[in-house]
Amino acid sequence: MDPQEPALAPSLIANVVILRSTGRGAEEDALAARLERGGVRAATAERAGELPALAQEWGVRLEEVAVLAPESEAAAGGPLQGAAVLHWPQGSDGTAAIQALAQLNLRRAARASAHVGGSSGADGAAATPRTFLLVGYAMKPSREAALAGQGLLPLLPRRPRAGPAVAFVPLDLGRPLGEQPPLDVLLHKGSDELVAGAGGRGGAPAWSEALLRLQRELAQRPQVAVVDPFECTAKVVDRCLLAEVLSGLEQLPLPGGVRARAPRHVVASLGAPDLQHRLDAAGLSSCALLVKPIVACGLPESHSMALVLQPKALRALRGGLLDCRGGSGGSGGGGGVDSGGEGAETAVVQEFVNHGGLQYKAYVIADKVFYATRASIPDVARPPAPGPDADAALLERQVLRFDSLASLPTRLPAHMAAPPKDGAAARPPQPLPRPALEAVAAHLRRALGLTLFGFDVVVCSDTGDWLVVDVNYFPNYKGGPPETAAWLAEAMAEAHARRQHRE
């Protein structure tokens, strides 16, 4: 990642010693690793007496170290004198300790800085003068670990190439915002907090009670920018809503003669008597198909999909999409999937085009765009359509069920794979023209109202058209360029500036 200059470094605490207590060894090691991923030097110690030696080893003064210690150690004085003492509540996952460090650095930076900025607390009263922006993030631990491991969630303020210094801090959705550090920006992965059967539209998952409570609290804090607005992120959870947004791509003029579009699709019950008629009307009567649940995330079944070589083989899916993790996504256990027509599952039935087994994964941070290539579903064969009397075994031979969260099927059974072309050899991926890619990203950014998102493009082997086959909010940005961390910090600062301007 691109190194960003630490802001106000002389005044900040960037070194933490965690004193071990009985029965908490694993928790302390996990907290130390979490701090290290966030750019804070951390170590564990058995006794307070080890603190001076650790400070000397690090080349810092005792006053530049924070100690996470039980109250008994803090009361004992001795080697802890001169170091900042923070308390880690018993039984917590370390979020409270990291928040205490953020609060400490806010106070120290404010005292050390001659430039004092104003901010408001949760109750509207003047809060500690601010010298850097604080971004609170809400996401599941595994996502935090992945992003922080790439340097995207620094716990210490970093000054990007443009704008104010920015630091990140985890939020505890189980506690009121008023009991946590004063935020300038909320960064969230709301789909981590979807609950199945919670009353969403058509049985779709809805926000958890913890996230709904957070939204209510944010409504009382208009000065806090939210990246991204919850109503905008909801558009990529529902594949029907997303398809409506993507339908506008076909009218988008792109430089270089590039044509982009969404895959043709229908939303229908897999057991509907008029399914074939609807496929014919949508131009899907003679192509391979991908079948996806309506809900894009938040359910175990959300990523259970099927590749179908011929539309008539859809009859094999009338019992529902198989959840590749061991359950059924059909009407018997759909967990929030609409049903209709003979009780069969309602799904998105989408055009599949041969694209050389290559997918372009584009990542967007505000107006910055980059992409990576990934192996995708190989080109498929075009077998004869099964007749009306075809048995279940024959239909199943034209269907491949898979879990897209685990992996796309980058190898196909021999009878499903397209035969190799004569003289064809593996060719390196062709780069996507950047002006066209940026134009597609800008269109989606406007249409979705999102700052952070990713989208997947495949290039049709027959026509050269770009098909945008998926969009997701706040991707992992894995493999991004060195500037990725700076781009994310700049996006947070820009969101804060827009919010203050509106206020």
TrEMBL record:
GO MF assignments: ATP binding; inositol-1,3,4-trisphosphate 5-kinase activity; inositol-1,3,4-trisphosphate 6-kinase activity; inositol-3,4,5,6-tetrakisphosphate 1-kinase activity; magnesium ion binding
One of the protein's GO biological processes: inositol trisphosphate metabolic process
InterPro entries registered for this protein in UniProt: Inositol_tetrakis-P_1-kinase, InsP(3)kin_ATP-grasp, ITPK1_N
Keywords from the UniProt entry: ATP-binding, Kinase, Magnesium, Metal-binding, Nucleotide-binding, Transferase
Sections of the chain in a coiled coil: none
Inositol 1,3,4-trisphosphate 5/6-kinase ATP-grasp domain location: 347-480
Keyword ATP-binding listed: yes
Family, as annotated: Belongs to the ITPK1 family.
Entry protein name: Uncharacterized protein
Lineage: Eukaryota, Viridiplantae, Chlorophyta, core chlorophytes, Chlorophyceae
